[in-house]
Design goal:
The protein is built from 4 helices and 5 strands; from the N terminus they run E-H-E-E-H-E-H-E-H. By secondary structure, it is an alpha/beta fold.
Length: about 120
């Protein structure tokens, strides 16, 4: 029997927003993978909608606690040995990118064209 590929999803919370709903739909639709959903802070309103995932709340809501979140996520990555780390939204992308350190394939999802400007090199022109 082949082991399932592991994906760690990192998102700021599981509130009732569009990015959060999209993440839950994606995880539920992809039962052929092992999913670990990591949130930076509460609320975790949509947690009960996750059918096919393990769940971790890092409880890091302030800017300074983001460094703690990076360390905690790095430990999760070392233990779980994921095949992919996926982040959604700005703060979770920063935390996940720092935690994965290029040792694990990393992708992030922009939820709107407005978010695209945050990742351009020359934001003035």
């Amino acid at each position: 029997m082949k082991n399932k590929l592991t994906v760690i999803h990192v998102i700021e919370s599981l509130a009732l927003g569009g990015a959060e709903k999209a993440l839950v739909q994606t995880v539920n639709a992809m039962s052929e993978y092992r999913h670990i959903v990591v949130i930076l802070t509460e609320p975790d309103t949509l947690k009960t909608n996750l059918e096919n995932a393990e769940f971790v709340n890092l409880n890091c809501s302030t800017f300074l606690q983001r460094f703690k979140a990076i360390r905690q996520l790095r430990k999760i990555i070392v233990v779980e040995k994921p095949d992919l780390v996926h982040a959604q939204l700005f703060n979770s992308t920063i935390v996940a990118r720092r935690a994965s350190r290029g040792k694990v394939p990393f992708v992030f999802t922009l939820q709107s064209m407005l978010g695209e400007d945050l990742f351009k090199k020359d934001v003035i022109s």
